[in-house]
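Lab notebook: predicted structure, single chain.

Context: the supervisor wants predicted structures on file for every construct in the current expression panel, including those that have not yet been purified. This is the next one on the list. No modifications to the sequence; it matches the entry in the shared construct table.
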Amino acid sequence: MHIPDGLMDPLVAAAGWILALVVLVIATRLLNRRVEERHIPLMALLAAGIFVAQMLNFPIGGGTTGHLVGAALAAILLGPYAGAMVMMVILVIQCLLFGDGGVTALGLNFLNMGFIGCFTGYYVHRAFPEKYRKAGIFAAAWLAVFLGSLACAIELAASNMMSGGAFGIAAPVAIPAMTIYHAVIGVGEGIVTTGILVFLSQVSPEMLKMPKITAGKASGPEKEVAADA
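Prediction complete. Output recorded below exactly as produced.
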């Protein structure tokens, strides 16, 4: 899902950077007020694990790649804003050190994987009743991947249309290439995310009960993902 340099219309890329910076400023202020010392090791652990998972990517056509994302996992454990910051750190390292995703497209990559991924993952998961916790985790992870890929496809199509074909990818190519492949990738993401959270509920339930960092009142202990859910 990483967009490389030179693929997007400059106006679309600039809009992505502006929106990403707004989200990051809000997230930074919230983290400065609400992050606790116990959040830091978990943020580092998630950043390292998701970074490795995202490096296993493959081309899916149209100049883009497919891979596991991990945004829903980060958001469910930390809250959407801390999860988004973790995703931004990962994307910056991938971009600057490994050439995975471009600097000019970093704002769009963050919006697709960090913002959409984390906020979709967190709030979809929270919307499910407690007795459907596993289904909620799976749905959250799948939708986080699928909606991020759909946003990426729309950005590619918009760039192509705005530039008269000089940038981006035409909608008939971009939308199927991104959404069909990522609908399948999302199934794997849902299985992996559900498995990790169920495992953590058995070996480290206190990790799931840590306060989540949201824009509203500080979230209390998270509902536990019991093994028999």
